[in-house]
Amino acid sequence: MCASPSSSPSSITEGNASRPGFQFPSAVTTLAIVMVLVWVAALFIPSGRYAQDADGSPIPGTFERIESPLSFGERVEQLILAPVNGIYGLLSPAAALVDTEIVGRLFGQIGIIVFIMSIGAFISISFATRSLEVAVAALANRLRNQGWLLITAVMVLFSLLGTTMGFSVETLGFYALFIPLMTALGYDRLVTAAMIIVGSVIGIMAATVNPFSIGVAAGEAGVGIGEGILLRVILWVLLTAMGVVWVLRYAARTRADPSLSLVGFEASSAEGTTSADAEGTTCADDGASRPDHAPPPDAANQTLSGTQKWVLAITVLAFGLMIFSVIPWASILGGTTGPANYYTTHEIAGVKPFWFELDWWFPELAMLFLIASVLVGLVARMDEQEIVRLIKAGASDMMGPAMVILLAGGVSVIMTNTQTLGTILYAMEQLIMSASAGAFAVATMVVNIPLAFVIPSSSGHAALAMPLLTPLADFAGVGRPLTITAWILGHGLALLVSPTNVVVIGGLAIAQVGYDKYLRFIWPLLLALFVVSAAVLVIAASLA
């Protein structure tokens, strides 16, 4: 570690001695603990199921307790195999079981893992050309007094993409661009992580026409995707503004006084340090250590070479194509509802894509960035061995986030294979069935929060919960569009902190921000979002 000029050896020793003995475990350990706790909880939650209609949705009033499908020995085996199933386990619709040796559709997170590893390869080879370093330094110099504007623009953009088409997992690719830029502007890594996570997840929480959440829920409820959109737009404006203000407040305070930073401005801990960080940590003029990819002080005075301009063009094209290719244009512009699944099939049944839609998902996106990596190497006139070396190094740097993601998938596997989700749904049904209109709306939001922890997929959550919620809403005198809004608010609140949400846990791992530090940062905002959302729901229910 590099000491500042004013620091003495004694002060450094005292600083180290003052550190608390307990340190929050790393993201990988945290997820492993969560997985074990969920497994233990599943031992005490009775198995149960609902009868399903032709679309696979649960039918209200048909819940029944069943014998556990697994013996204790098989449950132990499931715990051991959960991380493997979280990578490439298949879900058998007939057996309702996730395993690697059955016929079914992909349930594991291998697609996301390959995607972020390809992003790591692209990061490695593009930073080797120093094109982003020089460009970031120049942009940081131009925006040195307007960092707030960049934070606001990025958060509003990600929130807009989230509210319209569920853009969230794709944000994992943008840390490569924003970490060095925000570092150059004088912000810590928590600002970068919060800017991306809060912006995108609030967009998910305040979804307006997202076909993978509102579209699926509306289809299950038998209403149009546009019904209730005015209330959802109002909520999107309110909640996005709250998120932006909270991040800007923290960013301004820590930039003015670095001692207020929750994560510090030093090099990251060993758990999240990349190979580039480990080999290239140097000292900036102010004495604080910085990662190798943070632009040096004189980078702003350098100009981009022709090769570096080509590398930047490839970078812009790759990220722009990624955004364009995953947007379900026909579903959004056509306002279509129906069965959908964002994380597995990434499509809506019965919707005919427009001619210009690419309908790409993780396999295509992974290859996009691998091809872009090779193009950057060729444009930079690297030899074959250097291109391969940089791609391998970049991909290996993402193994930490990959382990976090596979463990998060393992949690969902345990809940699915023990068939305890039906019991959780039944408990939720009992809690809200006798509430008044306003209380029902708030209770709908509350009871869906824990369910979102085990079902982070909004489409999967909607397909399970909405068939039960809509008849209860009719009984309570609450409009179905308002019930959909209450449901997505609860789902989004959980996603902001859920350790099973790869957007949060994967993003924090890439940004090298401790989960405990993030929780300290986010909990006041989470409480404020809950209060505002509940108040809006009560007002809307009373005016209906």
From TrEMBL:
Keywords: Cell membrane, Membrane, Transmembrane, Transmembrane helix. The chain crosses the membrane at residues 24-45, 106-128, 148-178, 190-209, 229-248, 310-332, 360-380, 401-426, 432-455, 484-509, 521-543. The keyword Cell membrane applies. It is a multi-pass membrane protein. It is found in: Cell membrane. Its main location: membrane. Residues 273-302 are annotated as: Disordered. It comes from the Bacteria. GO terms for cellular component: plasma membrane. This is C4-dicarboxylate ABC transporter. It comes from Halochromatium glycolicum.
